[in-house]
## 1
Amino acid sequence: MTKQFAVIGNPIEQSRSPELHHAFAEKLGITLHYSKRLAALDGFEASVRNFFEDGGVGMNVTVPFKEQAFALCDVLTERAKTAKAVNTLWMQNGALHGDNTDGQGLVDAIRALDWPLEKTRILILGAGGATRGVIYPLVQAGVKEITIANRTLERAVQLVEDLHDAVAPAQLNVMALDQLAGDFDLVINATSASLSGDALQLPAALRFNYAYEMAYGKASSFLEQAEQRGVPSTDGFGMLVGQAIEAFSIWHGVKPQLKDFLSKSS
């Protein structure tokens, strides 16, 4: 019987997870079926329970259910605990396990670009869930210092306080988004501002060597500004593929090579 996998969210039509997982499986000679599941906003838990009771093996979770998935799990990885959000589920010995592969997906995508991470200084724009999910894996990858810039400074301060024990090896700082300045190896945009009319302006006092936009598939003023400076930059497609590969490796015990799948037509 073909093993069943799925991605659950609301909305869900935009998800590229089925195409990615089927591509990984084809490359590695694995037989599986991966589908999209639309859950009612108040029906997430029931949908997850039904999926696994029907013999489902693994499930990815997308917006807006990652926090609910975190609360539902019996066993959590360290990176899921730090992120307080789960995007990968599987059943093991009767217990629902949860992980967050977003941050490792980002790390792997940056490494695939041959951009440095060891002993670097990184600025992350935004203090929401996307930022929370990537800090622990970045620190594990050897990043020396991470500064979080946010419109509401208090939210960035709270995030740093929440993560202090989990990421003790690295130095965490905060900065107001309207006071951007300083020298950084890499700037990561985890806000939606550069995709909206409320475009984020990067001042001349902010200097950086690389730029990573977490979003993908849309025009980004953040990337446009990086390109105007002649700074190497990319959107978040590599992160999307990377987090999917990490989930695939959890379920199947084998890890596809990220560079094999970085063409956006894959």
## 2
Amino acid sequence: MGRLVALDIGRKRTGIAATDIMKIVPGGLGYLPTHQIPEWLVKYCSEEEVEKVIIGEPKQANYQDSESVKYINPVINRIKKLLPDLEIVRYDERYTSVMAQRAMIDAGLKQHKRREKGLVDEISAVIILRDYMEYIDNMSFRL
């Protein structure tokens, strides 16, 4: 049993979020240039017990893969090569950037802070993780 880690992979930056060890609360861990994510994840997994990684899967409104998938797949393939035993789950991330912007406005962040794209990516990763956790909780109630 370990943490859940979520990644909002973008062309340039990737937002990172993780749960506490009990998998109760998701929180942001920041963001990194996307090309650094596989090696960062190897280091993180050596320091923390990680159960699985949830990767935001960008879809269009019609459920087709978005253009961004071509940037995400190479990162996933690299992670799989470096950490072959790590479970990777792809999870629909539609509208997370919009929700992240809304959360920043609701939190009262000033406009210059809301323009920080890395912060939007980090909050998006938290939203992906939170939504995934809610989905899993709802599925367990149905069983």
## 3
Amino acid sequence: MKTNPGRFFEDFRLGETIRHATPRTVTTGDVALYTALYGPRFAVQSSDAFAKAIGHPASPLDDLLTFHVVFGKTVPDVSLNALANLGYAEGGFHRPVYPGETLSTVSEVIGLKESSNRQTGVVYVRSTGSDASGQTVLSYCRWVLVRKRDPEAKIAEEHVPQLAKVVNPADLAHALPPLDPAAYDNALAGSPHRFADYAVGEKIDHVDGMTVEEAEHQIATRLFQNTAKVHFDAVATKETKFGKRLIYGGHVISLARALSFNGLANAFAIGGINAGRHVAPLFAGDTVYAWSEVLETAELPGRSDIGALRLRTVATKNQSCGAYPDKQGEGYDPSVILDLDYWAFIPR
């Protein structure tokens, strides 16, 4: 067989390393299309002049554009036959990526757990994105629910990995060049609020909403070379639980991050992803809103220029966030689609 039907759960082996195909050179064209799709307005990623003034050699890529490109490489080998991407942990952005850099991805299978119905199983992978010189720019763990080809197939070895609940932001702060806080122009950045202005427990309604269009999410997912069938094949998805195509979960993350500008405009870089869960599916025609809670603030050793905010950003569909819809006992408010816990760097 010359075509790739994708791996099924029983095809994975604990400890195996998968070198993913198609390295990707990211360009200013990718940046422009990403901006057109999501509308992020963070000044450091929008303006070469602003970025250079504070210490970057040029405007870096939006961290989530890097994430999606690295993630997209893994899909043909990990989640082509997935039913759902379940969660994230131990994410770290280790180096800024600038236009012209070439990214490639390698994944290690770190866990396997068959579902009780024997129709599916959960695959845990640690994926690492590297630049052309082999330096790590991004690493993260994710786990995904994958179909079995044969429900009766026996699984050789199972293991559920123990993953850290929180990454240390101090281990990731080296990714950013020394920043000149005096050169960081609050007016141009769009907000006067810096590190000291945020308090643990504070909740921020990001107010704005974005309605997702069918063509828009298709273009976005293709931009990242994500080939998962559930996002593209309207005929095949008629036979699924929902009967239609799902929006790529990363699309929701980028929408929520873009919306968070209104209230977190100076939280200009993502340091790490502590945890993430796609709570419910999103479909074309739904409108996304978001709110964030400050879970923790952290001073960084040796960095008097920036601090870190541990943020929990919750995205909803078709319900604004003035009431901060959240967990309800063991479950969630029906409007919640994303629950993301991450570190963001912000000037002091």
